[in-house]
Structure formats: C-alpha cells, structure tokens
Amino acid sequence: MCSNGCKEFAKVKCRRRRKQAARGAVEMKVKKLQRLVPGGEGLNTDRLFLRTADYIQHLRLQVDVLQTLSKICKP
Known about the structure:
Layout: H1 4-36, H2 45-72
C-alpha cells in the first residue's frame, strides 16, 4: 500500500511535467514568432518582443497607406 508520501510525490512529479510541457509550448511559440518577424531569428525573447511590436506598427502603417491610396484612386 502507498502512504500519503507517495501521493505527494506523484503530485509533485505531475506538476513538474505540466510545467515542462508549458515551457516547451512557450518555447515553440517563441520560435514560430522568430520565423515570422523579419530579423527575429537569433534574438533573445525581450528583443524579439520589441522587434515584434515595431513590426506590427510597420504593418499597420502600410495598411493605412494602402487604404488611403485605394480611396484616392477609386474611379
């Protein structure tokens, strides 16, 4: 029979597995983001997030410019 200590050990082991799985999921998402953002590969996480914010602003500006041009050039 298993004492209360075995149950606690199993709980701790399960928590560790969940943390490792979550950490792996975050690392995978960071790697995907590095591939999406120009110049993102090889950056550490904090620099990657700053570069991502700049890239989003750049894309928004491009959309605004294109929308304005499409309104101006309507027949």
